[in-house]
């Protein structure tokens, strides 16, 4: 017994148990992170797989027979007692059953038979199969539509008899319907290009000339015939606008012509304009390879399109663009401020009580709640700085604010202020690790202090600087609370970057993935439709943060390899 006691005493004294304990903790942490990411990926990206559409026959609470088409989304179980307390039909309860299985079914057709999600207990389902020929129509509004295609009325809404009106049925109907949907998408692409391109540019120029005219009339700039020039430019732009508007009307007339008639499971006919249909597919007729192609296309549309239906449908491209652009601007702003502050504290300031107090203050700033920075950014950056900028440089636009309202630049500055303590501390640690002999040797060889700083100190401290930037990016990309006050919105009409001078519009509001997750997850009018998008957006935000961090880490490792010999 004494030998065993001595063995364990020596084993604990060697420190080996703590090594195993640390390894186990790291393994558990890695497993938990991988598990969480795997769950998010499965819950999110499984949404884009074209599931088969089932024809479900069931009995409702009143004992009436019902039929629906729908996708089986989720299988769940609830206790029988809870089912009965909620007013469930006791006849549906199997003998000696403790739990009731139920399916969450996406039935679509929200416009004619809401809601588009419903729970059906297996006990009330009398029959279920997956008949071929069921079509899924993804619409701009009102979600998906499910049914059998009855007929297609080509040129049903045509105002001019350019083409004969005709009704298509029979075997050629599916392919003809797909062709007309593709045609409508092509016309819609032309409309978007015209509205966001030429018409948007004309409106931007007209607004610029309006403000310039107002400035000239108010006497802030000498006239010298400028009013006549402005009127001539406005007249030319308005003439161009009328031409473009005529093209736009023609495109809308071409778009709104065709009508498809679906028959739902209950036998009702549903008329849908092809102009309202974005995509269609026949999931029950598709092979695994075809479903894989549709899956990849759906994910690409999610990444590249704008959101619809209160952000519960469509893509998230504006949020991706806004997140990356804000993080890049924040990094550009925070890096010089953090490095300069750390250089002053370490290389120039006389070490004493005052510098120690500043360091304590910097460390405490890192622990301030982020919403406090948001309130400060709103009060100081937006109202004070932005308001004064408007009064000095944009008086002709008042009372409408230009920079005196939340926007991209103020959000970037607020997050830069939030993350600058991290960069300062990391840079100071890097400067501390540089041997004093290198500084003295550089000065002894005749280099000035600035030459020593820029050619010796900063290059060797660059890995530590990048470490601070990595930590700053990781924190800033996931912040939501301060951004709600200084520039992030639910839906931004235009991107901060476009083809109008000065191209990068720092005063504009923008979308952000973190706020998008909050909005879709907690403010959505259709919770069931929004749930998979929350998972997919969360995974995408993690991927973007990892990609930005890996870029900085790669650069840091190269710099460390370059200056490792110098440090040793």
Concise summary:
It contains 15 helices and 13 strands. By secondary structure, the protein is of the alpha+beta class. It folds into three domains: 77 residues, no CATH class; 155 residues; 249 residues, Orthogonal Bundle (MetI-like fold), CATH 1.10.3720.
Provide the fold topology.
Layout: H1 2-13, H2 16-45, E1 54-59, E2 65-79, H3 80-85, E3 99-106, E4 117-121, E5 125-129, E6 134-139, E7 144-154, E8 166-168, H4 173-217, H5 226-255, E9 259-263, E10 269-273, E11 277-281, H6 288-304, E12 307-308, E13 313-314, H7 317-348, H8 353-365, H9 370-393, H10 408-432, H11 436-444, H12 449-478, H13 483-486, H14 513-522, H15 527-567
Antiparallel strand pairs: 1-2, 1-5, 2-3, 3-4, 6-7, 6-11, 7-8, 7-9, 9-10, 12-13
Helix pairs in contact: 2-15, 4-5, 7-10, 7-12, 8-10, 9-10, 10-12, 11-12, 12-15, 14-15
Task: Describe the model.
This protein has 568 residues and is of the alpha+beta class. The protein folds into 3 domains: 54-130, no CATH class; 140-294; 319-567, Orthogonal Bundle (MetI-like fold), CATH 1.10.3720. It is built from 15 helices and 13 strands. The chain has helices at residues 2-13, 16-45, 80-85, 173-217, 226-255, 288-304, 317-348, 353-365, 370-393, 408-432, 436-444, 449-478, 483-486, 513-522, 527-567; strands at residues 54-59, 65-79, 99-106, 117-121, 125-129, 134-139, 144-154, 166-168, 259-263, 269-273, 277-281, 307-308, 313-314. Strands 6, 7, 8, 9, 10 and 11 form a 6-stranded antiparallel sheet that branches. Strands 4-3-2-1-5 form a 5-stranded antiparallel sheet. α9 crosses α10 and α10 packs across α12 (449-478). The longest helix has 45 residues, at 173-217. The radius of gyration is 32 Å and the shape is flat. The relative contact order is 0.09.
């Amino acid at each position: 017994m004494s030998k065993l006691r001595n063995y364990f005493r020596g084993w604990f004294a060697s420190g080996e148990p703590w090594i195993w304990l640390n390894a186990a903790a790291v393994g558990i942490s890695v497993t938990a992170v991988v598990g969480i990411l795997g769950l998010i990926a499965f819950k999110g990206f499984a949404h884009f797989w074209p599931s088969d559409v089932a024809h479900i026959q069931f009995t409702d609470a009143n004992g009436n027979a019902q039929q629906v088409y729908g996708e089986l989304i989720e299988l769940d179980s609830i206790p029988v007692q809870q089912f009965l307390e909620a007013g469930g039909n006791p006849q549906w309860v199997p003998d000696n059953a403790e739990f009731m299985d139920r399916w969450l079914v996406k039935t679509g057709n929200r416009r004619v038979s809401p809601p588009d999600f419903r729970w059906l207990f297996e006990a009330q389902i009398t029959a279920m199969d997956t008949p071929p020929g069921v079509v899924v129509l993804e619409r701009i509004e009102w979600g998906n539509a499910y049914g059998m295609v009855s007929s297609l009325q080509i040129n049903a809404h045509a105002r001019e008899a350019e083409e004969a009106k005709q009704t298509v049925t029979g075997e050629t109907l599916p392919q003809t319907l797909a062709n007309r949907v593709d045609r409508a998408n092509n016309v819609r692409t032309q409309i978007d290009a015209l509205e966001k391109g030429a018409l948007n540019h004309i409106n931007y120029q007209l607004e610029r000339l309006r403000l310039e005219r107002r400035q000239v009339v108010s006497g802030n700039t000498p006239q010298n015939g400028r009013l006549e020039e402005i009127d001539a430019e406005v007249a030319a732009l308005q003439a161009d606008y009328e031409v473009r508007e005529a093209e736009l009307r023609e495109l809308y007339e071409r778009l709104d012509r065709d009508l498809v008639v679906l028959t739902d499971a209950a036998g009702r006919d549903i008329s849908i304009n092809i102009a309202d249909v974005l995509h269609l597919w026949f999931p029950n007729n598709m092979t695994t390879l075809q479903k894989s192609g549709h899956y990849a296309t759906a994910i690409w549309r999610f990444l590249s399109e704008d959101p619809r239906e209160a952000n519960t449908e469509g893509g998230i491209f504006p949020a991706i663009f806004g997140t990356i652009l804000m993080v890049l601007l924040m990094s550009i702003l925070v890096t010089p401020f953090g490095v300069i502050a750390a250089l002053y504290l370490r290389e120039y300031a006389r070490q004493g009580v005052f510098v120690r107090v500043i360091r304590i203050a910097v460390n405490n700033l890192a622990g301030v709640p982020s919403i406090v920075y948001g309130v400060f950014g709103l009060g100081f950056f937006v109202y004070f700085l932005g308001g004064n900028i408007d009064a000095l440089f944009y008086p002709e636009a008042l009372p409408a604010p230009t920079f005196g309202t939340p926007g991209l630049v103020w959000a970037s500055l607020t997050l830069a202020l939030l993350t600058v303590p991290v960069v300062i501390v990391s840079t100071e640690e890097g400067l501390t690790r540089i041997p004093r002999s290198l500084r003295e040797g550089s000065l002894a060889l005749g280099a000035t202090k600035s030459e020593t700083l820029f050619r010796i100190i900063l290059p060797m401290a660059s890995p530590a600087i990048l470490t601070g930037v990595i930590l700053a990016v990781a924190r800033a990309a996931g912040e939501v609370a301060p951004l709600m006050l200084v520039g992030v919105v639910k839906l931004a009409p235009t991107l901060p970057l476009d083809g109008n001078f000065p191209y990068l519009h720092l005063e504009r509001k923008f979308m952000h993935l973190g706020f998008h997750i909050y909005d879709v997850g907690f403010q959505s009018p259709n919770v069931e439709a929004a749930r998979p998008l929350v998972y997919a957006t969360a995974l995408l935000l993690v991927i973007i943060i990892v990609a930005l961090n890996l870029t900085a880490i790669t650069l840091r490792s190269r710099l460390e390899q370059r200056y490792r010999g110098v440090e040793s």
